[in-house]
Specification:
With 318 residues, the chain is α+β, with helices and mostly antiparallel strands. It is built from twelve helices and 13 strands. The protein has four domains: 60 residues, Winged helix-like DNA-binding domain superfamily/Winged helix DNA-binding domain (Arc Repressor Mutant, subunit A); 51 residues; 87 residues; 85 residues, Alpha-Beta Plaits. Strands 4, 5, 6, 7, 8 and 9 form a six-stranded antiparallel β-sheet that branches. A four-stranded antiparallel β-sheet has the order 11-12-10-13. A hairpin with a 4-residue loop joins β7 and β8. α2 crosses α3, α4 runs parallel beside α6 and α11 crosses α12. The longest helix has 18 residues. The chain starts with a helix and ends in a 5-residue tail after the last helix.
Length: 318
């Protein structure tokens, strides 16, 4: 076995073992202990996070932040990685923001100059544009860790109307239109609610999930798929051509939008209870470009909003 191949396989073995002795590696790779010591010294100089302990019970240990073995990429694969990272460029917060910057710099510096120029052309010509929401999410990485560790968290949350303290069991996280969301089982409401991560002001406590006190949680993919077919209300909205164009860019409504051969279109779909208020707020500025046909609850909610606007802007002038 060549030295280069041995070093790569040694990195893979060390990552799997985490704790080991020089004798164990010497036996596994059929080399002398002196050779293993030289190999370990080279790995440490290359940045592999090892530390040693002397004594009868001593040996080598790998630090928590492990180093991965080298991976070979084709030119197209390297471009695909940078193309994928473009989708994250305009998010104000990311769970691993500094690490993302670091890995791209390392990766780019290892590529041939002509490939670097080709990737620069991709970055100059293709953008996954996301509007700047001016909403910081300083607890995004903390909530990410709560979710992947399958823990519960007691949080201080600032909603549209009030601030409250509640214990939630996150299903996961998803990003949409520049904002991060955390669907979670709320022990206070005893149902799944969606929390905007930028509105989580404090994680008061994190603790293991109490399995006996809540229903089993689905994956984030299953949750989103289920949300798309939720049937609390049948939504039916008639649209003009202008209304159609405005709805085409909105993820939730576009999934139920159908254009008509005679012009205009119609939204015909099922929505959940939590989306009703959002639809009322979204459709209100459409004016005569949208006519809500169903459900009656949505019509009533929009009438209430129009009345409140009338009270605020028109009644005082009479």
């Amino acid at each position: 076995m060549s030295k280069a191949k041995r070093l790569i396989e040694m990195m893979i073995t060390i990552n799997a073992k985490k704790d080991f002795t020089v004798g164990e590696l010497a036996k596994e790779f059929s080399v002398s202990k002196r050779t293993v010591l030289r190999d370990l010294q080279e790995l440490e100089q290359a940045g592999f996070p090892l530390y040693s302990e002397v004594g009868a019970a001593g040996g080598y240990h790998i630090l928590k932040e492990r180093m991965l073995p080298p991976i070979a990429f084709s030119e197209s694969e390297a471009k695909a990685i940078f193309f994928s990272c473009q989708a994250l460029q305009y998010y104000r917060d990311l769970p691993f923001e500094q690490e993302t910057i670091s890995v791209l710099k390392k990766f780019l510096n290892c590529l041939p100059l002509d490939v670097q120029k080709s990737i620069a052309q991709i970055q100059n010509k293709v953008v996954f544009w996301i509007p700047d929401r001016h909403c910081n999410s300083p607890l995004l990485k903390s909530m990410f860790l709560v979710a992947i560790n399958r823990h519960a968290a007691t949080i201080r949350y600032s909603s549209t109307h009030s601030e409250s303290t509640r214990t939630i069991l996150p299903i996961g996280l998803y990003a949409m239109n520049g904002l991060w969301y955390c669907p979670a089982y709320c022990t206070t409401a005893k149902e799944i609610r969606v929390f905007r991560v930028d509105r989580i002001k404090e994680i008061i406590e994190e603790h293991p999930c109490p399995k006996e006190s809540c229903p089993p949680l689905v994956s984030i993919q299953e949750y989103l798929e289920k949300t798309e077919v939720n049937s609390d209300y049948h939504l039916k909205i008639q649209l003009t051509d202008i209304g159609v164009k405005r709805c085409e860019s909105e993820y939730l409504l576009a999934s139920g939008l159908k254009t008509l051969p005679t012009g205009g279109g119609i939204i015909d779909m099922e929505i959940n209870h939590a989306a009703l208020e959002w639809v009322a707020d979204y459709m209100l500025p459409f004016g005569s470009n949208a006519t809500v046909l169903e459900p009656a609850e949505l019509v009533e909610r929009m009438q209430q909003k129009i009345y409140e606007l009338y009270q605020q802007y028109c009644k005082s002038e009479q």
